[in-house]
Amino acid sequence: MINLERKDWIRALTAHPVDLLNTLAEQLATDCEVKLTSLPQAGLGLLQLADGAFHEPYYLGEFPLSACRLELVLPDGRRAEGGAQVVADDADLARSLAILDAIVEARLPGWEMVAEQVTSGARKRSESDQRRNAILAATRVDFSMLNNTGDDDEN
Questions:
Q1: At 129, phi and psi to the nearest 5?
Q2: What is the DSSP string of 51-87?
Q3: What is the per-residue pLDDT across 69-121, written as a single tens digit (0 to 9) for each?
Q4: How many domains would you assign to the chain?
Q5: Using the 8-state DSSP alphabet, how is residue 153 labeled?
Q6: Is the keyword Lyase assigned to this protein (predicted)?
């Protein structure tokens, strides 16, 4: 079915339009009780790096980050936990992704539909990554010729 690790499901799912993900999550969670273990939040994350000379930390910049953790409870008493962090300023998307994560992980009713979305999203991401890598390879510069030991100034 899904040939990806769970940590990669969210990236694969986000290859699809937000409306599709929100609709799918709402459809599949209609019979479930959704208990939020951490409220859906949208905010900013800070990207911290270390400088190359003194290895001191500094902040390169901010990026939008939304997160949610929840538990689904089915009418028959089965439970499933899910969570998501996504680089977007959309708490509702984080909630939908957390629902989809829980459904697939626990193989709740409808998990096959979500698994198909994960698989097709992974394929889209892979194709995009290949195009991007091809572009990067085409723009790579070989500086080895600049490391010439010969001195052109000598006569």
A1: -65, -40
A2: -TTT--EEEEEEEEEEEEEEEEE-TTS-EEEEEEEES
A3: 999 999 999 999 999 999 999 999 999 999 999 999 999 999 999 999 999 99
A4: 1
A5: T
A6: yes
